[in-house]
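Archive entry. Fields below.
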Amino acid sequence: MRKLLLLSALFIAASASADNKPIRSGELWPDTDGRHINAHGGGIMKLGNTYYWFGEHKADTTSSAMVGVTCYASEDLTTWRNCGVALSVSDEPGSEIERGCVLERPKVIYNKVTGKFCMWFHLELKGRGYSAARYGVAVGNRPEGPYRFLYSQRANPGIYPVEFGEKELAVVDTLDGEHFKEWWTLTWREAIKEGLFLKRDFGTGQMARDMTLYVDDDGKAYHIFSSEDNLTLHIAELAPDFLHHSGRYTRVAPGGQNEAPAIFKKDGTYWMITSGCTGWAPNEARMFSAPSIWGPWTQHPTPCVGPKAEITFEGQSTFILPVGDQFIFMADIWRPRHPSDARYIWLPITFEDGKPVVRWQDVWSFDQFNKK
Ligand code: DGJ
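PREDICTED_STRUCTURE:
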């Protein structure tokens, strides 16, 4: 009996200590092998009791993809084991995901109907800077992979957004790129809102850079990405297989220059946190809300509070993780001169006056979270 009591006391102590492990944003975060987690610009998928963290493997001296998408697994969200490379870059010359390409912000969602794990990411072809502006799609049979690369392309060629009715289409028809060679003028800004770049890229498909995926309560999934030269976000519905677009999409904050979208829903309201566009340098987070994924989207002040809140604590949003009925804001502190040393920001989202708040904490733990 005493032995049993001792064992259960030990068990309780062990589970409590797992829960108590502190989260220290900005510091090194070792995996179970003692190596700093290498999964940047990432996102997390939960399957059963296990969380899978997918992200960009970052090399020491280049931000190009030399390895691919990594996967880590955890039951407690603090102890992560390295599951290896989920999607590997290719050594085949000319491959769209050739080693040395730019492969960023991978996200994975599970399709309950097909039983497949669907990975989407931002892809730039090797040697072409950021000009390709494509999304890539890969598929796997197991959460940790391996994932098979399927294709990459620009988004929704030959399709205007759902909100473009007869009136909007008539206006787009009048827009002539030749009249708007100079950027940032008042008339250029107006033309961007009216769809100048949508029209420019109508035939080839819309640009697709920084991105996230979101699966709604009704099972529908969405690809949210920076488009139109990073000026405008697009929310594109996915087809039931989660491996293609359905062809329906909407624009958010046309001309607002938003990157790094991360989204969650609470009590029927969609909240999206984004960043401005300043390369690897941090800037002030933005926040939007909407009663429907299709909008209308309203902008709010930054949700960040605390030291360096005006530069998102030196980070840039990547994902918002639901844990029980609460949410974790995840961001990256980039280190472009030593990319593998990039750090993570994880902070709980609280609600004040009905709005999300991301308050800096040097250290916190999941104690107050119900992880079910
Ligand atoms: C900001 C983006 O959010 C990052 O993912 C990356 O593409 C950098 N720009 C590159 O400068």
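CURATOR_NOTE: The chain has a mean pLDDT of 95.
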